Amino acid sequence: MNRPDIVIVGGGIAGASLGAVLADRASVLMLEMEPSAGYHATGRAVSFWEETYGGLAVQPLTTASGPMLAAPDPDFSDTPFLTPRRTLHIGRAGDAAARDRLLEQFGGKVDLVPVEPAGLVPGLRPEWTLGVLEPGVRDIDVAALHQAWLRLFRRLGGEVRLATALRRAEARDGGWRVETDRGAIDCTMIVNAAGAWADDVARACGVVPIGIAPLRRTVVQLRVPAMPAADLPLVMDLASQFYFKPEGEGRVWLTPHDEEPSPPCDAAPEEMAVAEAIARFEAVVDWPVEAVERKWAGLRSFSRDRAPVYGFDPAARGFFWFAGQGGFGIQTSPAAALLGAALLRGEALPPQIMGIDPAPYSPARFR
């Protein structure tokens, strides 16, 4: 496929989901620079479906995606991608303003219940006196979801070209000439779903970057045999200094909620961040840490206002942004893909996302 209608740059959750929605009515070629799709952010995500995560700009996309993840079309998946979890937002006395802000911002939009946190997390240290339960939170099977998008994309005729990077592109004859590691491709549109590399891809296409910033997030897997149960809630700090969740019996996935600026790269964990994560964990619960079993890092990429960027660049005909999804691209992927496809095709929004306003996501806000 060297003359597709659309070239999508990036095979992570963004490119895979949008490609799957577009491929039934267009010829679509996906370029993935790595030997496997989803190697970077998607493959390293500690993901969950949480309506408050990402803030008010992201919540409509998350909420609309919930039913599609919980009860997917049988042609897409014969099993749901969500399993029960819950989130307990916790804080100390000084975090009362953050608690009140959470309740005020999402009141009437998300089910939130003020609680005494100690009863929900045995071993919680006594200074953690503030709690807000978000009972609707679910774990996401990230690998299954990503593979389902790729499987649907291929079934509809899309092609994934691995280990193939876009080197440069130029607008010509009403379309684009794309130069890659494996030769030239002519297409009508380019979709920039390159995650941490989104601004680099724009530059390679002669398009002005919009300021997509990659931020490193560190995760560690701890062995904690004293953890009371594997079905405890995800515990999230109201002050955004950590979150952790059980990962099977006696194991926890933990992050210090770090956001260190980074160039686009194969991110690796910093020992200082790992040590900080463990120190924060030990200040929350009295479960002894027996061992660090794994540690890794990924890049979460944000626009300047931390809302995703979906739409055609107003100054570059046929160049479509689908980037800046931060740490919420997985939980929003069904709604975001439907929104992106409608914008790209110039069509009305489908019923599943009819109530979402696309304007806050337009790249025009940065031009």
Automatic annotation (TrEMBL):
Gene3D superfamilies: D-Amino Acid Oxidase, subunit A, domain 2, FAD/NAD(P)-binding domain
Keywords: Oxidoreductase
Domain FAD dependent oxidoreductase, chain residue ranges per copy: 5-342
Pfam family, one: DAO
One MF annotation (Gene Ontology) recorded for this entry: oxidoreductase activity
Gene Ontology CC: one annotated term: cytoplasm
Statement: the UniProt record of this protein carries the keyword Oxidoreductase: yes
Entry protein name: FAD-binding oxidoreductase
UniProt source species: Sphingobium fuliginis (strain ATCC 27551)
Lineage of the species this protein comes from: Bacteria, Pseudomonadati, Pseudomonadota, Alphaproteobacteria, Sphingomonadales
